Amino acid sequence: MKAIFNRRMFSEKLITSDRLNQLGGIVHQFPKPGEYTGLNYNGKQECGSFVLTVSDNHKNSQVDIDLYSVNQQIGKFALAVGGYAVFYASQSSRGFSTVVYREAMKAKTEDKVFDSTSLKKGDLFYCHLLLPGKYTATNKIYKHEINILVSPLKIKSTYRELEPLTINVHSGGFKPQSAKIMAAQGLVFKVDTDSTISITRND
Amino acid sequence: MSRMLVAVSEVACNAFLGLIRRNFEFIYNPPPVSNPPFSVEVDIKASLHSGEIKLFDDGTLKIDKLDIHWDKLNFILNINLDRVCVGGWCLIRDPFWGKCLVRVRKVCAFSANPDVRIVVDLSNFIKSEVSARVKPFLSHFDDAHEWRCMVEFVGGDVDVFDIEDMTANVVNEAIHDAIRNTIPGPSIVRDLILTMLGPLDTLVCAICNLSTPDDMNEFIEDTLISTFKVRNSIIEAISSTFAQDLYLFRIADNYEIIKATSDLAPVYIPIEDIDIDINSHEMKLSVIIGN
Asked: For residue B262, which phi and psi values (nearest 5 degrees)?
């Protein structure tokens, strides 16, 4: 059998929180119980939805919601109160986003509790920068930038053992103001202000 | 009632060897055996060559030094490269208990199962011989009006299963090549994946559970003999060959002892019974001539 190689994993030139591909994901906490509805978008086109039940009846602290696979059907998920939803896309396409409302489908704007195109304080955006080189991360809302140098992986064990690097995103900019990581090492943006994080490879 | 002693000729023995070689068939492709992260399978075809017959005092014959010619001995490894993944690390920990609350899912480079299929033809690297012990007996076939010296299969052994030293290198190199060929370019991607996989020798050792790459020969031998029981299967095939009513020689029950000439009719003698007597020097028939 011929290997099915995930070519997109190594060819994505842009990783951005408002259009998720398979190299990035967003973590959002749901502190209040309730029935939530998410509307998913592939690019600008609505492509699917899901229902998330947050309740004390559930014990799981994490639920993974693949915005690609709930493309065609209504996904149903459950989470403990205070738990975290991890939004990701198992396939890239045009890039996926989601808007989560309290209660009913197509609810009013004021019922919006989460919009992946505009992250809020407490959200996390993680990504995998695989290829060595120079990258620039931008908070598109504030136009802040940070340079990230990704050095080549030297030995196999390195990327498994390295902790992900965390970068804080404040209204004044990124902290630290530059970063160095190893290829395939995790990178986490801890959001403290309105953010849309975008990362591009410069060479 | 008269008795006549007859020695069985070397020609008859050699003809018998030829019969065995022609009737032996070994085509073997058992189902793959899975041992994650790999599975192994074999695809084998073998024939017999040369050989000699030895006589024993216990009345048996040993068909010895039959070379097994491996017409095809494909050793097939199917490997999953599921190690080439990123992610899987803990993103949020419980501040009090340290338990991971949120773990990032993995993204993997390969998703087929298996990712790599390696076929190595070992037919030129393994030398084997088989021997079989048989006990001849005489049986009368009424329809054919003849006596046949049949053989009963007593036992067999694959005497030698000699894997050449260089086989380990050949298999290791084939695995390396297959993995390298599975990884597409450009070189920046290839280099990264090869680094993520780690040294290929180490990877192969981990997959096949070897201490060093040189242990590959032992792994092959163990796979062929213990996992796929190739040795036993060959002996079964030999046994099946003898079960095909092969006979060492045959004699008409009305034996033409003097051929016809222009003046005289042929002379026949009726053979009533035959005993066979084998010792380590010769095989003799004691033919009882009827009236």
From this structure: -65, -25
